[in-house]
Amino acid sequence: MDQRRCHDLRVEHLHAPLAVATSVPRFSWLVEHEQTAYRLTVRTPGGELVWDSGRTTSAATSLVPYAGTPLRSDTDHTWTVESWDAAGTCARGVSRFGTGLSAADWTAPWVEPVQDATVLERWSLQDWIRGAGPATAAEERLRSVQLLRQRIHLPESPVRGRLYATAHGVYQASLNGEPVGDEVLAPGSDSYRHRVSVQAYDVTAPLRAGENVLGIALADGWWAGRIGLTGSSAQFGDRTAATWQLHVELADGRRIVCGADGDVVSAPGPWRYADLFVGECFDARGAIPDWDGPSFDASTWTPVRVTDEPTTTLVPFAGEPVRRLHELPMCVLHDDGEGIVLDAGQVIAGRVRLRLSGLRAGQRVTIEHTETLAADGAWFVNIVGINKDQTDVYIAAGTGDETYEPVFTYHGFRYARIRGLDAGMRVDAAAVVIGSDLEPTGTFETSDPRLNRLHENVVWSQRGNFVSVPTDCPQREKVGWTSDAQVFAPAATNNARVASFFTRWLANLRADQLPDGAVPITSPRSPFDAEAAAAADGVGGIVSAAGWSDAIAFVPWTLYERYGDERVLAENIDAILAWIEWQQRAAASALPDALSGAPLSPEREARQRLLWNTGDQFGDWLAPSTMEGRPVHEAIGIAPALTGELVAPMFQAQTLTLAARMTAVLGRDAESAELAARARAVRAAFAAEYIDEYGDLPVRLQGVYTLALAFDMVPDELRASVADRLVELVHERGDRLDTGFLSVPYLLDVLCDTGHRDLARRLLWQSEMPSWMYEVDAGATTIWESWDAVAPDGTPRATSLNHYAFGCVDDWLYRRVLGIAPVRPGYRHVVIEPDLEIGVTFARGSVTTPYGAIGVDWALEGAGARVTCTVPHGVHAELRLGGRSIHLPPGSSTHHCAPVALQHN
Ligand code: BGC
C-alpha cells in the first residue's frame, strides 16, 4: 500500500479554517515529489460531493481555486487531495474547512446596551503638540464595560453549534459561564463604517439541552475608545453595540437560529472603564458571579435597545485573530519610592498579569507601563500625549489570592510600576504578549550575536505591531499607517505567514479609498480622521501621500512576489488604477511653487504636468540629518519640505511599473503596455527635470539618490555617477545612515547592485548613531522610531521604541546574508547567493515558501566555505557560489568554495 502523504493542507493560507470568508476558497498542500497531476474533491458532512476536479495535469500545489457547485454558507466540508508524480505514485491528504455566514443569511439586528454616550474628547494636532489634556480623572470621564445576556432554550444538546458574533466596540463572548474561544479584542480593528468582521466560534461542546446563556462583555475598543496620534475618542461612534447569531443543528437535522434581539438584557460590569489607550479599571468587589450562567437572576437588568443600524457592513473575519501569544516572567528591579518597578526584559505589546495575595477589599493597585527607564533607572514615560495613560487599575476584592489581567486594553511596554501594595507584599507578575496569531516562519542565525539581536528586534517589533492590523507603534498611536506597512511588508513575509493578515488589511484600505481615487495615509480610517484632516492644514491635513498611499500597489505586489498569490492582484488592481488616475490628475493640475508663474517652455511644461510633484507630502520621513538640532515638532517638517517634490514622482513611476506588471500577470496586456509606457514617460520627465548631466539631483540627501536608483529613475548612462554621488553622501555622514522611512529599505540593495557592496556591509555593521547596530549596542530589544531614541549616555527621548519601519533591513539579511531571494513569484524559482564576506563565520536559516522551507546553512571553513542548501519539491533553485551557478535538486546538498577573502568589521 502506498504510504505517501500530502501534508500541511491549507485553505486560504490557513489550516482547517472554521469559516472562510470567500465563496471561492483556494487549496494548498505540500508534497515530497515532483507533482504532475492532482485531484481535489470536496464533500459536505452528509457525504454530498460538491466538487471533483478530476485528475488534472498540473504541477500546481498552492492556492488552487475551488470550482465546484456554489458553496452554501455556514457549512462544514471535508476536502481531499491526491497528487501524482511522473511514475504514477499517488500521495493523499484530507482536511476540513467551513464557510462563513453570508450577509444574506444575517437576520439579527444590532443591539445596544443601556449606556451613556462616550464623553467626546477630541484634540487637534495643535492641542496635541501643546500637550493639553483632560482635566478630570479617567474614572470620571470613561464609562463602564457593559454585560449583555441572552437566554437560549434548546430541546436537546446539538450536534453542531456555531456562534457568529461581532461588535461596535470590543467584546468577549461566553456560553454558560465559559469564555468562547481564545481571541482577545474581537472583532479586531476594521474600517467599521464599511466593514465589520464577524467571528465564528465552534460552540458545539458548551451548548446543552435546556437553558443556555450567551454572555457578551462589551467595551469601547477601536470603535468608541481613544486611539490615534491625538488620542481622541469616539472615532467611529459614541455608543457600543453588538450583534450575533447562534446556529445550532440537532441530531435529526433540525436547525435552530437564535440571534441578538430585544429580549437581551444588560447591566454594567465590574470594569469601571476600559480603553485601548487610557487602560482599564477593574473593581473586583463588583464582580458578578455567574452573570452568564443559566441560574443567574437577571430580573433587574435592563433590556437592550434594538437599533436599525444596517448589518450590510458585516463580513466574515478572514485570517488569524489576536490572541495571547507568549508570557514573559517579570522580575522586580527596585522600589523607586512611588512603586515597585518590574522588568519583562523585552519591549512588547500586551499587558501585565498580576497574582497577588493578602490585599484588603477596596485596595487600589495601579499598573503603569513604559518602554524604557531613564539613564539613572528613574521612571520615564516615552509616550507623550493626551489620553495615553497606559495605566491599569485593579481594585481588590480582598478574598485572598487574586489574579488580574486586563481584558479590553493593551499597552506598549517593557517595564511596569506597581503602586498601592503594602510594604513587603510579594509581586508575582508576567508580561502577556498579545498580537495577531500569525504562524512564525523564517529563521535567521549567524555567528554574530549583535546581528542575531538585530533580527530578533525586528521580529519583536513585528509581533508588537501586527495587532489585528499593521500599526506604527503599540503605545502612542496604534494606527494603521500605510507607509510603515509598505516599507516593512517584505521583511514581514520572512518572519511569519502574513498573507491573510495583509489581505484583510488591504480590504480595509480599499474600503477607505475615497471616491476620487485618493488612498488615505492610514487605514482603518475613521470618520473622525476625515474630519480632523479637513479641519487642519499642513502635515495634519494630508489625506494621501507618496509612499504612504502607494501601499495600495506595493503591498499586493509583495504578497504576489512572496506567496505567488494572484488573487491579491486581481482584488486590488482597480483600486490601484484609480489611485494612479488620482496621481495623474494631481500631476496635471499643479506645478511646484518654484515654477508657477515662471515662463516655461512647452516641453518643460509638458514634462512638469506629467509629474506628481506638488501638494503636502511626508517625503523621506525622519531622514536623520533633517532631525538634528531642532525640536521634534519643527524638525519633522524638514524632510517633507525638502524631499516631497522628488519622492512623489518617483513613487508615481514605481506604482505605474507595478501596475503594469500586475496587469500583465492578470492577462490584461493592452493595459499593461499602456501603463508601462506611462511609467517610461514619467521617468523620462523626471530625469530631464531633476537629474543633471553629472548625475546630481537637486537635494543632496542619501534617500533621494537611493530612491532614484532603486526605482530606475536614472538613465543608464548616469547610473554610475548617481551611485558615486550616493557613496559620497554616505561617506560625508561618516558611513552612517541618513535615509528616511521611504528610502531605507533600498539603500543596501542599491549599493550592492551598483558595485558598492563593501559600503553596504559597512553600513550594516556601523555602530555610530544613526545605525542599526547603535540601537543593538544601546540595549534595544525592538526597532526604534528614531535612531537617537536613546542617546549615547543612555538618556531616552519621548519617541516610540517599537516602530518596525527601519526594521525593513531584515529582508536584506534574508536575501543577502542567507542569500535566499525569489526570482519568480512564490519562490517558484529562487536564487541562493549568500554573502560569505559579510563579516560572520556562519549563517543559517530558512524561508518558508508555498512549496515548503528553503534552508541555507553556510560556514567559513579554512580558507574556503561550505554551503548546505535544502530545497523543497516544486522549487527551481540555483546556487551562485564563487562565480559558479549550480542547479540545486530537491533535498539537501552541500557545496564548497575556496578561498574567500574575509573582511571582518
Ligand atoms: C507615525 C508614523 C507615520 C507618520 C506619518 C507618525 O506619527 O508614528 O510611523 O507613518 O506619523 O508621517
**What is the number of helices?**
19
Fraction of residues in helix:
10-25%
Give a count of the beta strands, DSSP E runs of length 2 or more.
44
Radius of gyration: 28 Å
Q: Give the rounded overall mean pLDDT.
A: 95
Q: Based on the coordinates given, report the CATH architecture of the domain at 103-319.
A: Sandwich
* Structural class determined from secondary elements: alpha+beta
Fraction of residues in β-strands: 25-35%
List the uncertain runs: 901-905
What composes the largest sheet?
A: 10 strands, mixed
Structural account:
This protein is an alpha+beta fold. Among the domains are: 7-98, Sandwich (Immunoglobulin-like); 103-319, Jelly Rolls, CATH 2.60.120; 324-436, Jelly Rolls (Sandwich), CATH 2.60.120; 829-897, Sandwich (Maltose phosphorylase, domain 3), CATH 2.60.420.10. 25% of the residues lie in helices and 28% in strands. The strands form ten sheets. Strands 19, 20, 24, 25, 26, 27, 30, 31, 32 and 33 form a ten-stranded mixed sheet that branches. The protein has a six-stranded antiparallel sheet with strand order 13-12-15-10-18-21. Strands 3, 4, 5, 7 and 8 form a five-stranded antiparallel sheet that branches. A hairpin with a 5-residue loop joins β3 (37-43) and β4 (49-52). α5 (482-495) runs parallel beside α19 (809-818). The longest helix has 28 residues, at 638-665. The radius of gyration is 28 Å and the shape is globular. The protein starts with 6 loop residues before the first strand and ends in an 8-residue tail after the last strand. Residues 229, 472-473, 477, 481, 483-484, 618, 621, 803 line the site of beta-D-glucopyranose.
